[in-house]
Structures are given as structure tokens and as C-alpha cells.
Amino acid sequence: MTKTLLVVWHSNTGGARAMAEAAATAAAEQGVRVRLLHAGDAAPDLVLQADGYIFATPETLAAIAGPMKDFFDRCYYPVLGRIEGRPYAAMVCAGSDGSSAARQIARIATGWRLREAAQPLIVCTRAQTPEAILAPKTIAAEALARCAELGATLAAGMEIGAF
User: Which candidate, 100, 37, 32, 89, places its Cα nearest to that of 65?
Assistant: First the structure.
């Protein structure tokens, strides 16, 4: 039976989206079914149908972006008690640090009772001025390769039953 990986992302400037797409593409190459969805389009029924998850978000004011928080809030009660132990990984596109957003996802995943399959992947763009923060982001090839590796690793682990 083919496993399903749900990749939920939000991006204001394209960085987190590119990260999610790299992970999703590599995961699909491992033979799992991949659903790549913007946070606004991800619903509880799709969370329930998935066997594992990748969450990709920009860090906004030392937290996950509002649309990602909305996704987690909307889905919490409908999936509570029904997805325990499923694997997840987190990716954060940050201007400087990203660790606060990664910790926030980990706390949410604990509440959802998910199992962390990999350390959070944080890509730092060094965007510090208003202009740089709002500018479209191009993620370096090396960072996209790390995103792809995360997606492939999670998918392979799901396929062999390691997660």
C-alpha cells in the first residue's frame, strides 16, 4: 500500500514554497504519494488521509506565519486522537534565526502527538531590512538540496516502515 506524505506550506515571498516543492519532488521520487498544499487549502480530512507530514513556513516575528498557525488551529480538534505517532518534519525559511518558529512547530506537533522524524531544517536568507524581507526569495541550490534530502529521507522511512 502506497504511503501518502502531506506537505503543507505557506510563503509570502516564495522561499518556503521553493523549500516545500523541493522536498515534495524528492519524496515523490521515493515512491510515496505526495500532496503539496498551501496552508489555506489543507483541511482536516487531508491530514487524516496522510501517513506523514512536512510543514514549511517562513518565520514571521519569531513565529510561524499566520496562515500556518490557522492551518494548525483549524485542523487540531478534527484530527485530535486520530493521527498519533505519525512522522513529521519541519522546514523554516528565516531572515536571521528560525529557531523560534521551529520550536513552535515542535510544540504544536507535540499537541497533535506526532513523532519528529528529523531535526527542523532552517534556511537563513539573511533578509534584515524591510526591502529585503519583502523581496521575492531565491533559495540557494545547496539549501534546496537539503530540503530535497529531507523529503526523500522522510518518504523512504515511511515506505520501509521506519516511521
Answer: 100
Higher pLDDT, 133 or 18: 18
Predicted structure pTM score: 0.96
Pick left, alpha or beta for residue 88 (phi over 0 → left; psi -120 to 50 → alpha; otherwise beta): beta
3-state helix, strand, coil in the chain (%, to 5): 45, 25, 35
The Cα–Cα gap between 16 and 22 comes to: 10
pLDDT band at 163, cuts 50/70/90?
confident
Res 91 pLDDT > 90: yes
Question: In terms of residues, how long is the chain?
Answer: 163
Query: Angle at Cα 12 formed by Cα 6 and Cα 16, nearest 5°?
Result: 40
The cell 506523514 sits on which residue? 52
What CATH fold (topology level) applies to the domain 4-160?
Rossmann fold (3.40.50)
